[in-house]
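dumping the sequnces here before i forget
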Amino acid sequence: MKKTIPLVLIFVAGLLGIISFVIPHPAYQTYDEWIRNSFLRVLSAFAMVLALGSLLRVHFDKIRRRRKNWQYSWLLLIAFGASSIIGLFGGVAADGILPTAIGSFHFDIQVLYENIVIPLASSMFALLAFFMASAAYRAFRVRSTEATLLLTAAFIVMIGVLPLGHSISKHLPMFVQWILNVPNVAGQRGIVLGIALGVVATSLKIILGIERAWLGGGE
Amino acid sequence: MNISTDPWIWIASILSLAILSFLYKENPIFRAAEHIFLGVANGYLVTFYWHRILMPILFRPLFQQGDLLLIIPFVVGILYLTRFIPRLSWLVRIPIAIYMGYWTGVLIPATIQAQIIKQMQGTVLTSQNFQAWNAGSWGIVWSVIIFIGVLCTLSYFYFSREHKGVIGATSRVGIVFVMTGFGAAFGYTVMARISLLIGQLQFLLGDWLGIIK
Amino acid sequence: MKLHERFLQIDRRIIYAILLLVVTLPLVFRSPLKVTPMSPVEKLFEAVDNTPDDMAVIIDCSYAPQIKAEVEPMAIALLRHAFKTRKKVLVLSLYVEMIGLATKALNQVVGEFNSLALTANDSIIYGRDYVFLGWQPPPIVPMLGMGESISAIYVVDYYGNQTDTLAMMKGIKNYNNINILVALSGSSIPISWVAYAQNRYGLRVGVGCTAVSGADFYPYYQTGQFTGLMVGMKGAAEYEELIERRRGVEGRRIASEAMLSLTYAHLVIILFIIAGNIGYFISRRKQRRSQ
Amino acid sequence: MITILLLWITGIGPPANVRAHDVPSDGGGVVVIEWNLAPDDALLDGYEIHRSENGVDFVKVGFIGRGRRSFQDQTHDGTTYVYKVAAVSDTLRAFSLPSAEVTSHASWINVAKLNIYVAMIIFGGLILYFISCARRGKALFIRKIAGLQAIDDAVGRATEMGKPILYVLGLGYIEDIATIASLNILGEVAKKTAQYNTKLIVPNADPIVYTVAREIVKESYTNVGRPDAYDPESVFFLAREQMAYAAGVDGIMMREKPATNFLVGYFAAESLVLAETGAATGAIQIAGTDALSQLPFFVTACDYTLIGEELYAASAYISKRPLLLGAIKGEDYAKVIIAAALILASIIGLLSRFPILNLFQ
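..and the predicted 3d for all of it:
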């Protein structure tokens, strides 16, 4: 029973997903919309509780057992606690019961997002510029046909997109566009077709209960 | 030089530097920024899920407007929490099955439409596709190259034979297309990433330190 | 360690340090790089430049803070071009989060012109030379609605004025009076402009986008759905070059200044790749010889 | 101004031949109105669409630019309407004759998607047929996939070095096929780490994927008879935010210095952040994803990369379950059909006037 019920449910739910494509009638579509927008979104919110529980447990545990770098866990817990309280009680648009400003200093959740999360994420993106350089240096060597192709195409494009590219040859920027629009598209399309077939096959296997890794352990 | 007096610009700048210091090596300042990042990002997530999902589509309609149908997702959602009760923990499979089943079901026709049929449409050799290039008779050449490229790449992903003989040859050609495309995409992305770095430096040197304002 | 071995194992931190240096220095010393404008940008420039007196240009500033570095210079260059050549300008944003950046760019350029103006005729005056429509959710509403009547969708402008009472709006009723709309965005908004405003009302759409979306958008330019296309900082730098060369627009060229950083960064990466390959080549030959 | 004056003097001609029809195979509520352009089209503001339920009182329902020949109107299913189209110039209106009566209705089956149903039946049928072949014990040949051997070596290497293995599932949701394939591989990797008693670290970005990954790892440890070695804290949730997750994983890579990093699943721009940091720590890296835009970075920065479908095939191959292999066989035949269809359609498209592209709408 512990496996049969989930397998029956996944089959039924899968059929509902397929049917939503086949039946355009509003009598069915309104019901389908409810599944998507209410039912499934609510489920994802509950899963979040579980995940945050895991996050908190790992860090409380780290602190309790004085594991390596346990001090930083305090930082995480305080940052999490403070921003959650500000967000939950201060409201998404600073419209909650908790005051989120002292004089002209605002600290509502949107301000926290814009001044903590966005700069941190942008800096991570900025790291990418450096990582591209080191990855290119390490991997772009003429050691095999594949690596040479990779290197040549990257080389041409990197020069071609610069203002410099135009002074080398008027046709270079056009050639770059051609590489992106012709050989690149052909290769991508071949990969996409393969992926699509894999997606169809795997989805079928899941719905039919052949692929059941997701069930995890137990009987 | 006119250094910013806005405390938030200072916070944002110091956090940015902490992340950039990772390039030298992993260090306590990066570690602190990393943990603050995880904390605030998850705090924002809690806010978002509460104010944008749980309140407007579950609790308010259920308890204030009496939409009793919502009891079903409420109860099924709570099954996630049975994870903490060993004897009942198998019940967690029920919400997962429903969630996963529905979306994989949706995926089947959607994938066939967007990623098989549509991609085939763009590949077939017809005068209509030749003209779409807007490149005169070169359009025919480009279409033929794409046609060959797609077939050869597809043969690379043919698993029923070893890469020998005809399949060996076509899959080699396929790899040429794939690797050229990867190289080009890499080279093309360099500009975008350097631009992001420039943007971040403009923030640090301009908005914060006021050197380049 | 021999030279070629050094080439093979350059410490990543040396690469990072050199890259950081070549990107930062041109920013600090502000040396704009002259670029040669390419035809997608030139076409956009000409479309804006050829706007007749009884028509207007719409600039859609729908870019988020994350992509500001790439797109804001485009907004500034476009505004300078339009004001310098006395085009009527309508500015809007499709999302409320982006209105702050639109306001910033607009205020900056209006300030630049007015600080040099001597008479009212030289100045850029709100309601006569430009109108800031603000935002009206959801995006599809203004996209479709402005085809029939702009002042019916934006009944009041961003500052709360009745839109149809503004002098400039007298001759500007709907898309028929708009020569071109330039969408500045990092997402698929330009494609929505084509799908709704162009397909239904024949509005011409020009685009300024990030380097990442450039490759996806190029086919739309090829088929003529986009009248012109500015991609990334380089596109913005080309536009800056065009307005300076052909229309004598002066002012700080942010994108052109960044071009030098961008060029050096690319060259540094290329040099490191070459160095790595030289090292690889020599060590392979030595290996063969010793066999 | 002059044009308007001109139109005032000469008057404007109305659009002609107004037709209205229901849209087939839709959810109802839409009528399409088509017309021939008015004679002075170039001078107009555009066209107004007016409709009536009784044939007498017309109300304006829409406006569309000049040069357009059709309009979609939102309707109530079952109500009968009549349409008129007016050429508009400033305050001038020139109305067409009314259209014939039209009623919109909703369909129960979307017939317009017939080609997709056919494709679904062919591909689905092939896959199911080969799965049943596999079930009957028929031996199916699948070639070796480069990178799979590396998985075995990777676990061995970590054991020798006494260092952990990091398994990164990426940003994918549970319904992403890359995530499911990755979970299969994770199951096998976990069995090996259980046997060799190697530490396994699995940070997660999605709450539901996290719950499933936990179960899978636990099961693997139980299956090889080492439930005692399972550490419930080896699988944990980090963050949903893309770069917060990347920063967290980067920190783990630098502090724990794993011998092997698996980067398998769905990834976005953070792919290179992870792969380069991993490379800097000297780990062997095995990547696999179906995210096209990230493949170039994995191919560049990792030791082995499973490209697109290879990832799915690897997941079936490694679990050594014949039923999963059968599906790959089915996919292979589907590829042959796609190739044949492309060639055939091209021949028809080049040699005849048959609008072959319409079959692929």
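Chain A has a mean pLDDT of 90.
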